[in-house]
Each structure stands twice: as structure tokens, then as C-alpha cells.
Amino acid sequence: QLHGDISTIFRQVACYKFETDLHKTFREKGHVSKEEIGELFVKHMSSYLGESVFFPPRAEYGWTYWSHIRAFFYVYSYASGLLIAKALRGRVRRNPKDIEQVKNILSVGLSASPREMFADIGIDIAKKEFWDEGIAEIERMLEEAESLAETIER
Fold this sequence. Notes:
Order of helices and strands: HHHHHHH
Largest sheet: none
Number of strands: 0
Helix content: over 70%
Strand content: under 5%
Shape: flat
Number of helices: 7
Distance between the termini: 24 Å
Mean pLDDT: 89
């Protein structure tokens, strides 16, 4: 779970940065070749994966089979959705009565924007502190994993 959470957040942010860079380049030039798109893709996937990951020949065309990249700027929902779920889970863990707030959010459906829906329960999703709550939940899981690993090593 921890590996998947971290991977989801970093991969989707890298994908978002790729999309942002691609659109910026297109606006500046009016055209972006497949080679340039490939360079941007490798640049951002490399930032996500790090220097120790080798990109084989033709990896720069990875964007062609990743179909949802062509549904521009929706990848942010993976990272933001995960962090929202983690933040709400942390709140419910600290105060089980907060589950009612979570149920209220879920019952809204598409009748309100995310900002409005969270504002109704006193959460401003525009504030960094809310997102830090989601990251804190992942940090808690990491600390738990490290503690378990120490136990196993003994």
C-alpha cells in the first residue's frame, strides 16, 4: 500500500508536469514534434524515477501508449484524490465521529464543486495544511513500516 501510494503521487505529479511542459512548449512554438514530446516525457519520468533507472531505446515514446495522457490534466485527480482520502482517514482515526462529515461529502455527488463540498464541513482545500494532512498519513505508514522492519531484523 505504501509503495503504491508514493508511486501514485510522484508518478501523477511527473505526468502533470510533462503535460504542463508540453502545452507550454506548444503555445510557444505552435507545433511540437514527436521527438520533442519524447524528450519532455523522458525528462519528467526521469525526475520521478531518479538517476538509477535506465531508459531503454524508444522509451521516449511511452506517452503514446499511456492513453489517459491525452485526456489533458486529469491525472492530478489521482494524486489529489489519494491525498484527500488519506487526510479524511486521518481525521476519522483521530475522531471517529468525523465519519459523518465524510459521509456528507460523499453524498454531495456532483452537485457542488470540491471546494464547496469541503467548505461545508470547514475544510479549505486551497490551503497547504489540508494536503499536508494526507502526506502525514503516508509518513505515518512509512514510520510503521520502518518500525515493523526493525522488529523483523531482531
